[in-house]
Amino acid sequence: MLYMLVFVLGLSGNGLVIFTVWWGPWAKRCSADTHIGNLALADLAFVYVSNRHAVGQTSTEQGSLHSHHPLETVHDPQLIPCMCPLFSCQWEGHVEVVVSHLRQTHRINILHGAEIVFLATDMHLPAPTDWIIMHSCLGHHFLLVLRKQEKYEGHPQFFATMMLIGTPTQADNFTYRLELNRNQRRLKWEATPRSVLECVDSVISDGDCLVLNTSLAQLFSDNGSLAIGIAITASKVHAAEAEM
């Protein structure tokens, strides 16, 4: 806007000088008038060239801003935070490196096999408390999260869920089963695992997991420890594709 104002004033002022000098009769024109006219022409050319340069520079700056703006706002939706609830960890990374992060940084153990038993000790610890283990089978890694928290004040509950360290599409190919078995009593929970790309807090708040109140947890515990049987199976479609 400022460049346009300078251009208009320069054009009108110098144009008026040129008109006055060169439009008058030749007989009355002196050498000073000729010099003034030449200076006005030079000023007019300078104003024109400066305005073109300023407009071009402004356009280039705007183009640079438009081209760099998307880079400033890009956020990779596949970056996930650390899934270990036992530590306050600010790590973020892609799903492919979650297993190595949990093993190297937090020393989380991996249990192998389609069917395993996870023993959660010290169930008497006050809420909130978390137990976590990785389960490797069928070419994938799964994460068992057992959480003790108070959903209602003074009434702690236990929440257990399995999450696939992979995408939601991959998680749909599996079924997990959690089983408690003690004193001729058996309790089973079977569901499709969630992906670690989803938040474990939302899984627990939605109640899409095995939920035990304190009395039920004590019924299946032995000396303050809770043994949870874990079994992972592939869907029929996924199993058929794997055989092919």
From TrEMBL:
Q: Which GO terms describe its molecular function?
A: ubiquitin conjugating enzyme binding; ubiquitin protein ligase activity; zinc ion binding
The pathway it acts in is:
Protein modification; protein ubiquitination
Q: List the catalysed reactions.
A: S-ubiquitinyl-[E2 ubiquitin-conjugating enzyme]-L-cysteine + [acceptor protein]-L-lysine = [E2 ubiquitin-conjugating enzyme]-L-cysteine + N(6)-ubiquitinyl-[acceptor protein]-L-lysine
According to its UniProt entry, one GO biological process term is:
protein ubiquitination
Q: Report whether Lipid metabolism shows up as a keyword of the record.
A: no
Recorded GO cellular component terms are:
cytoplasm
> Do you know which InterPro entries this protein is assigned to?
7-in-absentia-prot_TRAF-dom, SINA-like_animal, TRAF-like
UniProt similarity note: Belongs to the SINA (Seven in absentia) family.
- What organism is listed for this UniProt entry? Platysternon megacephalum
- Protein name stated in the entry: E3 ubiquitin-protein ligase
Alphabetical keyword list: Membrane, Metal-binding, Transmembrane, Transmembrane helix, Ubl conjugation pathway, Zinc, Zinc-finger
Q: What is its EC number?
A: 2.3.2.27
